[in-house]
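User: Structure please.
Assistant: Input sequence and predicted structure:
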Amino acid sequence: MRLSLDIMSVDRASEEPMHRQIYGALRRFILDGQIPQNTLLPSTRSLAEDLKVGRNTVIAAYDQLLAEGFIEARAGSGTWVAPIQQNRPLASLRAGLAAPQKLSRRGQTIVNGPQPPRNAGVINFHPGVPETASFPFTIWSSLLVRNARSRDESLLGYLSFAGHPGLRQAIASTIGLSRGISCTADQVIIVTGAQAALDLVSRVLMDEGDHVWMEEPGYLGAKSAFLASGARLAPLKVDRRGWHLADPELPPPRLIYVTPSCQWPFGTIMRIEERLQLLDIAERNGAWIVEDDL
């Protein structure tokens, strides 16, 4: 069966690329049954002429449909609509694809958690909102260009899952000088941000059902990460006087999350006696301490 696609058109004023418009229209026609199975599609050249677009635009649309199994190329005879789900009406298949899917319990926990507001262009006191007025964008851009020109394969390859060795070495050296932390590059792991780090920590250092001491009040992003990993949170109360580490209601912890350098939201700094007490608690319980240095 040969097909005429007079029903198709492209909107040149749309922000959606034309090859995506063609792909979307053909996919929709196939799923709705408007283009039956085993139908011969127009050649890329003829469809490009009909739509007044470049041939490569149509080729890109066909390639995507081919990759997803909606069409198939038959040697010597052109491109055909594939026999998809012959024992099931294609209209019902499309309805099934469009049906909303439920999130997991962990996903619901993350989505339903409170999210701090973001107000661009005004002073923010929420974590994760950087100050940009004094950021050295010119120097940053120059460094990016210089490294991009190096054509070093290590920039694009997966030579180390923990991150680029040079960056890890630079971080190890910097925190040794600025924070007095003695570590090597092998102990540094590069992540995309604090939330990714918290997610990784919660998956690697604890099991579902383990108790986590979570600062109260504290960082909502950390709370979401621990809950999503199945932790049972125990509130470690904090006020302007410090951390209530001797609270008898706290269960034995598997992990303790603290922001001792500048507690959020109070801005309190953990005293040395509190730090030593925290280390003692962790040692007695075989617990991990996650220090979020905001």
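The mean pLDDT is 85.
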